[in-house]
Amino acid sequence: MIELRDLSFRYGQAENSPYCVKAINLIIGRGEFVVLCGKSGCGKTTLTRLINGLIPHFFEGLMDGAVFIDGKEIGKQPLAKTARMVGSVFQNPRSQFFNVDTTGELAFGCENIGMPAEEIWKRIDEARAVFSLDNLLDRSIFELSLGEKQRIACASVYAAGPGVFILDEPSSNLDAPSVEMLRRVLEKLKAAGKTIVVSEHRLHYLTELTDRFIYLEDGGIVSEYTSGELCSMKSEALEQQGLRNPDLQKITRNLVSTVSQRQEGKTIEIKDLRYRYGRNTVLDIDSLVLRPGEITAVIGHNGAGKSTFAGCICGILKHKGTVSLDGKALGRNERVRKSYMVMQDVNHQLFTESVLDELTLNIPEERKAEALNILEAMGLGALTDTHPLSLSGGQKQRVAVAGAVCAGKELLIYDEPTSGQDYQSMIATCDLIRAASEEAILSLVITHDMEFIFNCCTSVLHLAGGKVQEYYPLDGAGIEKIKAYFTSKEGGYEIVQESA
Questions:
Q1: What CATH number labels 2-246?
Q2: Is 156 within 8 Å of 165 (Cβ atoms)?
Q3: 268: helix, coil or strand?
Q4: How far out from the chain centre does Cα 422 lie?
Q5: Which tens digit of pLDDT belongs to each residue from 211-240?
């Protein structure tokens, strides 16, 4: 059993720093499946860190109250003991790997707590069977897709045998089949009697598993919902609370598909685009014509070549083939100068000491007021002096998108810009991307987020195996194609094949 008693926490030692978690009292029963939800920055991640002991042992701050698991106070025992009780799977599984091979990673947690070799091999074999890992054992960690890495992360925690699992935004960068595989993994953990706490914005894959949805706001628990109560809520009520729709079938398009008139008549032509990684060809496009002024959603399963395509378009990857604007070839260096790319892991592109400095890094002083207005529109107006790396994942993502808009580049590429975003933050991101597209030649958005596509994009580019499957406008027929891709058995989940 997990018990939180009068729990409050704020990062750092400053007396005037705001509390991220405020006076929380909560009991989670053994074997219960609980989802923490709410707007970006509401305290979900902080709460998971308090339960798994990373606070106060790793993240410093001022803490009041206590966390108990099976009667033991987590804050007063070493992390090594807590690790026997609680296993954590982070938003980016790469951040928790200690080995370069998968089998070694499965063994690592067991070795750390001193299991005998025979027991370790028994645990590895059990994890292999539970998580269908026959084709993933003895593989390099670096050659796995995000979905496969997520399965290895879950399996390595499972092998160590904790009774409690904590998962922070586990689906944020996964495609539809990988999300379904994650759902199956969680289903198996629940069937095994594990206590599961998930911090998440994408709720649709969790409704059949969750016992309680705990809604947080400004660091406190505001309400609780059963799956039935959440699914019966009207769209307006969900949106007001910043919650994503738990039923993909109910998501509708709230945008008229319009294209920037400034770029009307121009075309971007891609010819014989090839990219190889070692001996493998990961991108192979004979011909593709993109209409400038579009906001194009680039979709496809993990490993389809989406990020590679984006890297080639903006010139950061050396490739074969040409990218032309109105018949004039644009060289790689020219495209680099014209481009701004928001990376999937925005931690790689946040460099300054404050949020405002991040936006004004490459613009003149007279545009500072514009940057402040953009931050206000993104719900970041109160964080101008905050260090970017101290923000939540969703807030960091919005800072990076705002930086792309302020840069004033002509080729704008966004790689998963809504990962870690609540509904209202997603809508603010949509508004900003649409405004930026009015001046840009090209706006490409790599995404697994159907709700975002319906609220922002005007066309869809579907990649598979490094090739173009389809390129179509997001009109009536296009909307049906997108729904089929994300929700039908043929287009999404059922393509996942588990090992016998």
A1: 3.40.50.300
A2: no
A3: strand
A4: 11
A5: 999 999 999 999 999 999 999 999 889 989
